[in-house]
């Protein structure tokens, strides 16, 4: 596992947006960021799940979160501009984005891959985080120390048969991370951009991809959080354009 021991107040007063915050790794990250002091903005498509995470955060006495319902499959540029306006109105700036939401899609050959499904996976996994980042960069620039994390995969670093649009979308996330990191690597150095490959993690997505696998052999989302905390907090200041593995030492 990535080794990092976060100080208790690592994310004190930070405003952090987590996409796909209702389930799996995004849910764990939202709770963990809140535990370390952040005000978390919970974005996702299933409002009831976001409300459950909201209640968990409130019950634990962490900073009051916010919910932004958004289905990234159908959302257009205007919707992301609206997200930026509501974050600006409520918080005035943004200190972090965890681009976590993603769809797996079919595991089949490219020869068999259906074009509408291809478009859907690319929309949710690539175009949506692009539009969101574009809309939110001005708010990140207002932070003294901002971090953007893209979520990759082992098939976003080396292509593998049958992983189709999902694999291609994860390569695209690595590319977007590198392009953006280079563009934001200015004199202020206040916005860093990196990617994380979570590695096999006990979630619904993993279970869909490997239905025959015994899930207990994979770490829980909570267990892979050290890399996320490191990249979101100031201990990674100055680190940008790099690809991380949540489960590697
Ligand atoms: P889950 O499927 O458990 O969670 C994905 C989250 O994304 C859900 O909250 C889901 O919402 C949300 N989401 C999906 N589509 C949309 C959409 N159209 N609009 C808004 N939100 C959406 O996946 P994981 O937690 O396993 O995955 C998290 C990230 O980690 C993903 O980027 C995945 O590719 C990556 N990853 C995961 C690995 C693993 O082993 N688990 C390994 C490598 C990478 P809802 O709850 O409504 O379905």
Could you describe the 3D structure shown?
The protein is of the alpha/beta class and 249 residues long. The chain has one domain: NAD(P)-binding Rossmann-like Domain (Rossmann fold). The chain is 41% helix and 14% strand. It has seven helices and seven strands; from the N terminus they run E-H-E-H-E-H-E-H-E-H-E-H-H-E. A seven-stranded parallel β-sheet has the order 3-2-1-4-5-6-7, sandwiched between helices. The longest helix has 27 residues, at 115-141. The chain is globular. The mean pLDDT is 97. NADPH dihydro-nicotinamide-adenine-dinucleotide phosphate is lined by residues 20, 22-26, 44-46, 49, 71-73, 100-103, 124, 151, 153, 198, 200-201, 203-206.
Rg over alpha carbons: 17 Å
CATH evolutionary superfamily: NAD(P)-binding Rossmann-like Domain
The figure for the number of domains is 1
Number of helices: 7
| CATH secondary-structure class | Alpha Beta
| Cross-sheet strand order for the largest sheet | 3-2-1-4-5-6-7
CATH architecture level-2 label: 3-Layer(aba) Sandwich
- Average pLDDT for all residues: 97
Order of helices and strands: EHEHEHEHEHEHHE
Which structural category do the helix and sheet elements fall into?
alpha/beta
């Amino acid at each position: 596992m990535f080794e990092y021991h976060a100080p208790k107040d690592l994310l004190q007063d930070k405003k952090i947006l987590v996409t796909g915050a209702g389930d799996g790794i995004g849910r764990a990250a939202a709770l963990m960021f809140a535990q370390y002091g952040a005000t978390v903005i919970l974005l996702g498509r299933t409002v009831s799940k976001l409300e459950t995470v909201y209640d968990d955060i409130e019950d634990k006495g962490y900073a009051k979160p916010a919910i932004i319902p958004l289905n990234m499959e159908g959302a257009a540029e205007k919707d992301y501009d609206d997200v930026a306006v509501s974050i600006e109105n409520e918080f005035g700036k943004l200190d972090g984005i965890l681009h976590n939401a993603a769809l797996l899609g079919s595991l089949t050959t490219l020869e068999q891959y259906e074009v509408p499904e291809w478009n859907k996976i690319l929309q949710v996994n690539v175009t949506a985080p692009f539009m969101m980042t574009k809309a939110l960069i001005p708010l990140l620039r207002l932070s003294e120390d901002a971090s953007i994390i893209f979520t990759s995969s082992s098939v976003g670093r080396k292509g593998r048969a049958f992983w189709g649009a999902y694999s291609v979308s994860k390569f695209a996330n690595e590319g977007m991370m590198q392009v953006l990191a280079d563009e934001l690597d200015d004199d202020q150095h206040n916005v860093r951009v990196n990617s994380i490959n979570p590695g096999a993690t006990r979630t619904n997505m993993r279970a869909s991809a490997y239905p025959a696998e015994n899930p207990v052999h994979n770490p829980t989302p909570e267990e892979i959080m050290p890399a996320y905390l490191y990249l979101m907090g100031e201990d990674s200041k100055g680190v940008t354009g790099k690809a991380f593995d949540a489960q590697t030492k």
